[in-house]
Amino acid sequence: MQVKNILHIKGETVVTVRPETAIQELARILAAKGIGVAMVTTVHGAIIGIASERDIAKGVARHGSKITELTVADVMVREVVSCSRENTLGDILLLMSANEIRHLPVVENDRLAGIISMRDVVDCRLSELETENENLKQMLSDAA
């Protein structure tokens, strides 16, 4: 299965924030949307980072109560690992594992085209295994 198939199933909506967004606002957005990350982009849509719940937690550990004075730019990850629509499920699993990340932005023509989470990967893999299982059962039934 390719990333484009996963995006077709889950959708291409990605929550974005600006680097000057207050940490409290980021936390509110993530909680309201029930998501773990937001992409950090310029006003023109260029990706400049990714900010997660984990980044907020690290910020609290590092800055204590002063976290409320910080912006997304103060805690975001600036080196963003990404994939394309053409990457396979295996490709993105390797990228996520090698980089110890749970969210992988999908980039097409230097633009954000979606985001894949580890949950999306697991759900797709389980679906593939269920289909394979059903096909094997059908083959065995047909052979009998």
Summarize the structure.
The protein has helices spanning 3-10, 23-33, 53-63, 72-75, 89-99, 118-143, and strands at 16-17, 37-41, 47-52, 103-108, 111-117. It is an alpha+beta fold and 144 residues long.
Keywords:
single chain, about 140 residues, alpha+beta, CBS-domain, 3-stranded mixed β-sheet, two-stranded antiparallel sheet, 6 helices
Provide a descriptive summary of the structure in words:
The protein has 144 residues and is an alpha+beta fold. The chain has one domain (3-143): CBS-domain, CATH 3.10.580.10. It contains six helices and five strands; from the N terminus they run αβαββαααββα. The protein has helices at 3-10, 23-33, 53-63, 72-75, 89-99, 118-143, and strands at 16-17, 37-41, 47-52, 103-108, 111-117. Strands 1-2-3 form a three-stranded mixed beta sheet. A two-stranded antiparallel sheet has the order 4-5. Strand 2 and strand 3 (47-52) form a beta hairpin. Helix 5 (89-99) packs antiparallel against helix 6 (118-143). It is elongated and about 70 Å long. The mean pLDDT is 92.
Explain the layout of strands and helices.
Blueprint: H1 3-10, E1 16-17, H2 23-33, E2 37-41, E3 47-52, H3 53-63, H4 72-75, H5 89-99, E4 103-108, E5 111-117, H6 118-143
Parallel strand pairs: 1-2
Antiparallel strand pairs: 2-3, 4-5
